[in-house]
């Protein structure tokens, strides 16, 4: 459970990249991948949706990966604030799975195991490793107060939400309750030192793009 001073927290998956569209795992090699033309429209729609909420003292954060920053920049502009890079919320490294299709992950968590015994990828990271870095990153952002908006990545967000809501990763993976489309938004509120989900993976702002 992460202590917090913020009353609300927003988690956003980055906009689409060409490799997302092809549904291929890229791992660390994806760090400089830009968002696509579709992704630019998604990011603009996401920015408009967040601006419409009139959030008090918004603080916009993005992972150190290019696609997260390209998604967060229009959000920050729409809210009239700066975008901050938050190390530790970058995507899980998929190691030896790089180059494989997303469909290879459509299996129970028990069948995707890192050598440390938790969900993860040989040659890359495990949930245990990602959880350690996202906990530190979340603590850093939450300590700044205001209303944090963190732009991160699909697998990393699933780890984050499990940490914040106290849900075991394997359980959430098996029913995909924390899955996010590109630029989908999750909202959490802080109550009594704990976090409660208001919405997970909301994407109504993308309806007009279809």
Automatic annotation (TrEMBL):
InterPro entries in UniProt: His_Pase_superF_clade-1 (IPR013078), His_PPase_superfam (IPR029033), PGM_Phosphatase (IPR050275)
Protein name as annotated: Phosphoserine phosphatase 1
Organism annotation: Deinococcus xinjiangensis
């Amino acid at each position: 459970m992460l202590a917090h001073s913020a009353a609300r927290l927003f988690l956003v998956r980055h906009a689409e990249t060409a490799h997302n569209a092809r549904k291929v795992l890229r791992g660390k090699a994806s760090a400089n991948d830009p968002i696509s033309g579709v992704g630019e429209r998604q990011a603009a729609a996401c920015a408009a949706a967040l601006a419409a909420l009139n959030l008090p003292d918004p603080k916009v954060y993005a992972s150190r990966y290019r696609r997260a920053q390209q998604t967060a920049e229009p959000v920050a502009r729409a809210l009239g604030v700066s975008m901050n890079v938050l190390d530790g919320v970058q995507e899980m490294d998929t190691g030896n799975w790089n180059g494989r299709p997303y469909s290879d992950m459509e299996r129970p968590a028990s069948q995707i195991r890192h050598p440390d015994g938790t969900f993860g990828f040989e040659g890359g990271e495990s949930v245990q490793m990602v959880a350690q870095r996202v906990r530190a990153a979340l603590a850093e952002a939450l300590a700044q107060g205001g209303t944090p908006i963190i732009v991160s990545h699909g697998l990393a967000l699933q780890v984050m939400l499990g940490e914040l809501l106290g849900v075991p990763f394997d359980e959430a993976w098996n029913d995909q309750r924390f899955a996010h489309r590109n630029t989908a938004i999750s909202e959490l509120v802080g109550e009594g030192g704990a976090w409660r989900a208001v919405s997970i993976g909301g994407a109504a702002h993308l309806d007009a793009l279809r």
